[in-house]
Amino acid sequence: MMDRREEFREKITALRKSTGMNRKEFCEYFGIPYDTEICWENGRRTAPDYFLRLLEYYIRMEKLAEGKK
Predict the structure, then answer these.
(1) pLDDT tens digits for 49-64?
(2) Is the dihedral of CA 6, 18, 34, 47 positive or negative?
(3) Nearest Cα to 60, choosing from 19, 10, 9, 8?
(4) Contact (Cβ atoms closer than 8 angstroms) between residue 56 and residue 15
(5) What burial class does residue 23 get, using C-beta atoms within 10 Å of its C-beta: 0-12 exposed, 13-18 middle, 19+ buried?
(6) pLDDT at res. 69
C-alpha cells in the first residue's frame, strides 16, 4: 500500500505534467516556491489534502491541461 507522501508525490507530478509546464513554469504560474515543488515531487514533503483538490480544480477550470488549451 502506498503511503501518503508517495501518493501526494505521484498526484502533484501528474498534475504538473498535465499542464505541459516544467517545474519552473509551474511554480511561477501558481506562486509555489521552487524548493517546495522539488520537495513535493521527491516525496520529502506534502501539502494538505485540500491543496491538491484546489489545484486540480483550478487546472481544469482554467483549461491548463494539455490538449484543452
Answers:
(1) 999 999 999 999 988 8
(2) negative
(3) 19
(4) yes
(5) middle
(6) 45
CA distance linking residue 6 with residue 59, whole number of Å: 21
- The mean pLDDT value for 27-56 works out to 95
- Residue 68 cell numbers, joined: 484543452
pLDDT tens for each residue of 1-13: 779 899 999 999 9
Q: DSSP for 7-66?
A: HHHHHHHHHHHHHT--HHHHHHHHT--HHHHHHHHTTS----HHHHHHHHHHHHHTT-ST
